[in-house]
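Why this split exists: single-chain examples teach little about how molecules sit against one another. For that reason, every record in the complexes split bundles all components of an assembly together and asks for one structure covering all of them. Below is a record exactly as it appears in the raw files.
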Amino acid sequence: MFEIVDTRWLAENVKRFELRAPRVAAKQQPGQFVIVRVHDHGERIPLTIAASDPNAGTITLVVQGIGKTTRLINSLEAGHFLLDVVGPLGNPSEIREYGTVVIIGGGVGTAIAWPTARALKKAGNRVLTILGARNKRLVILETELRAVSDELFVTTDDGSYGQRGLVTDKLQELIREEERVDLVLAIGPIPMMRGVAEVTRPHGIPTTVSLNSIMVDGTGMCGGCRVLVGGEAKFACVDGPEFDAHQVDYDVLAQRNAMYRAAERDALERFQQDPQQDKERVEDQCRLIKQHPELETNDQ
Amino acid sequence: MTNPLSPKERVNLPRQEMPAQQPEVRRHDFDEVNLGLTVIQAHSEAARCLECNHPKCVEGCPVGVQVKEFVELIYEGDYLGAAAKIREDNVLPAVTGRVCPQENQCEGKCILGKRFAPLGIGYLERFVADYERSQGKVGLPPKQPATGKRVAIIGSGPAGLSAAGDLLLKGHDVTVFEALHEPGGVLIYGIPEFRLPKAIVRQEINNLRAMGVTFETNVVIGKTITIDELLGEEGFHAVFIATGAGLPKFLGIPGEHLAGVYSANEFLTRVNLMGANKFPDYDEPVYDCRDRAVAVVGAGNTAMDAVRTALRLEARRAILLYRRTEAEMPAREEEIQHAREEGVEFVTLTAPLEFLGDESGRLRAARCQKMQLGEPDASGRRSPIPIKGSEYELPLDVAIIALGTGANPLVQSTTPDLATDGRGYILADKETLCTSKRGVFAGGDIVTGGATVILAMGAGRQAAKAIHEYLASPS
């Protein structure tokens, strides 16, 4: 089992977790994810690792409460345990000196972009970051991203903070103003990533997106996360999660991600009406591990 | 008590029939189909053994179970002794007694089978394993003194478990790493409850724990820990790679990305490992099959498992689509028969050409083509030839592709000095299962490609023997 050692709300519905997972922390590279299962009736969901501290043996996850599982996770506090955390999975981001790099984080995608931005900065790139959100209260990790960016811009849909508009508006400005842009990395909602791809395509700017497909095992065994890239089926878990933004079929991604919408709605409604059973399952785990501390190792 | 019957009397005894749940009942639930022999049936069946001087059945067994000896112990009523005898060669008797293709192995070689029905070796093996469980006791073979050597096993499927058991008995310290949250590999995520109850797999794994095997779940070797680290700072003296089946194969036809098209691996994992049939009590969903049309493409054991699972998820139609005829189906005869009894529709000599979706990207039909059989191909089976102009649309809500798997790249991609073939399978010596990397052995599906539980267990035994010799050799 995996202990939550610290939590902090970053925005409405968005929470940051420090989780004790020493083996994952020792290996994590930017762009990689873990698969998490909260309790023994839980589903397996992928969550990208925002940061890790190999010395403390902890990893950082940023969770946006959308469905049942993410809302359940966001109801947990330090001292709770997650039953299963496995990783780091997926291929790391390709970190090298490109020149000028534009990093675009939409909503909670910002948390995923953060480690890659930091690594790209460290590799000697000029890092320009655009954070997009619906409104001011939903802008997350601005300080963290600012610290690893040469310049940082915020756009909000309602103009309550930064520039009013979409990240693609700002991206277009940057492409006009900058001498050259060597790489764009966009992580966020599917329409945003599609929009970014369409902006950079006519300029021939290499563009990467990180795909959030539905996964089960995360190791290539089930094929549930398959996406169409350049007309070919790819597994986001072992071939990705990052792909050439200009080759991704976003319609198929959106359609496959909507596959369980009815079940997801059902599960969420049940959880909101009666969250007690799930919370008790988590509390039971905490009691169990207090009696049997050896369960913190992976053998169950 | 030795068997007093003459050979003539023995051959005239009828083979005991496996009691089973009625098809019309079982197609609606996930309870086990076969119920197991009674004590009286087991005794009568054991009495049929001819006790050959050179038993052919043992030759037919990939792990060399001492059939004659354990059957004799059953005849004598020493069921725990029989279990211990089996465990000397096979650490998972409750599993193999259920899922082995005995008709091609031990029972296929049984002398009785030449003129009469072969001895029910699988039924008897299952009987002693179930007896142990019902008594809460385990018949364990003796263990050698500790050697102080540590072996890491990657993967807790049949190859890994079998190697773990053998290495442990030889006195080595064994740790099994599993990527998923529960050990058992294909026995847990792949084979359905109605064919192999998960409680039985868990019991077998607990028996291995009781013998001293350590299991570490949630560890993906190649990602969480590399092979080099296992042999380095993690302090293991040898590694056995038994990662099993890998990436599922698809047909490569248009429309396979549609929502509602699954690999058999995914469909079965959602139900078997994640409990999707019990949604919403369990959180993982599976596409709602109730009153829908479901087709499985393929005709191996996995295809049968998937199509029978769809039936139990209350599909209106559960169809098996196969491009050859029933005679060429690779599945076990018993699985084919069970599927038919339960109401699976066999649509043979038919192949899907394309999956068709609605405007929201959900599967609505498969465009199929009729086939006829031509000359035998490289596999010796008559190859299907498309019939021009025979295309038609088969309305479908769910399609499940059960065409086998390719190699999983995770271990190989982070172990550059581990040689693989052109398709990504690990190259290992046929006898010793040695790989190109010193101290590293590999076996099971990751070497041979998709095969059976018992062949993987055979590879596990072979690896255990080779690893034991490797660890015993100086330097």
